[in-house]
Amino acid sequence: MSITSDLMICPMDGSILKRVENSLHCQHNHQFDIARQGYVNLLPVQFKRSRSPGDTKEMVQARRDFLTTTAYQGISDHLNQLVLAESNVNITDTSAPFNLLDAGCGEGYYLARLNQALTNAHNNVQTFGVDIAKFAILAAAKSDKKSQYIVASNKHLPLLDAHFDIIVCAFGFPCFAEFAKKLKPNGKLILVESGEKHLIELRNKIYPSLKAYQQNPYPDAIEAGLSWYKQDNICYEQLLDKSALANLLLMTPHIHKASHEKKKALENLSELNITIDINYRILTKNSAE
Ligand SMILES: C[S@@+](CC[C@H](N)C(=O)[O-])C[C@H]1O[C@@H](n2cnc3c(N)ncnc32)[C@H](O)[C@@H]1O
């Protein structure tokens, strides 16, 4: 789907954006061009802390290549099930669109599959992906023509308040106050996070010892007007070949922490069986907020 703008707001002043031909305009004459690939950049330079924030082009390509192996398809399938279950509860008024945001969507693997699952089940669905990395949004917009992709930060989402049924934040950077503002009352925030045993075989090969696992209690989520609602987990094993392993290392922060010898040893592996252990933590927006 190309950019329709009906939920987008100006990152400079918060006023509603209107689409005029191939750009979005606000009433104060701020203008944002829609790129040829169909995404829009709503991250003004003054909001950037570096020239190319977020994942690099190489990390985005490695994640794209890794995800095509289907090693993480189980994570996506389970996310789809959770979102569909919530959408069945939430969709009572079929004339109002069901809006889902993937905040920190990367190259769009999870969002494209969510769009497919939701549009198979419901008529009036809009899916949005935000990421601070332009290369990630570019890759996502090229391959998924059904979602609307925006370069922006989770800290300042250029989207209307109280319009989202679900926000997904997968292996990302949750900004609870901002997410809470964008959710409808009773809307859900789904955090997809590494569980205790996630990639343990790989981590054992990199680190001399592993830190005790601790789930983040996220006190700022409660302060933002969200409440813990449900928790779920999946755990399975997956055999990765040499190239999948190399891509996995490039797309995670672990490789930067490995010594030269450990990196070499990993490069020499022809395959590795890894554990995929994922926690899904769901919060609900308090209706009185
Ligand atoms: C570990 S990746 C996960 C990407 C995707 N959710 C996935 O699981 O395939 C984290 C993503 O968050 C993005 N990111 C980092 N800081 C961000 C911010 N402040 N706002 C939005 N996205 C951000 C990165 O560019 C990167 O694409």
Automatic annotation (TrEMBL):
Domain Methyltransferase: start-end pairs: 99-217
GO biological process per UniProt: methylation
Key words, A-Z: Methyltransferase, Transferase
Gene3D superfamilies for this protein: Vaccinia Virus protein VP39
Residues covered by the 23S rRNA (guanine(745)-N(1))-methyltransferase N-terminal domain: 9-51
InterPro entries (UniProt xref): Methyltranfer_dom, Methyltransf_Superfamily, RlmA_N, rRNA_m1G-MeTrfase_A_prd, SAM-dependent_MTases_sf
Native species: Catenovulum adriaticum
MF (Gene Ontology): methyltransferase activity
Source superkingdom: Bacteria
Name of the protein in question: Methyltransferase domain-containing protein
Coiled coil regions in record: none
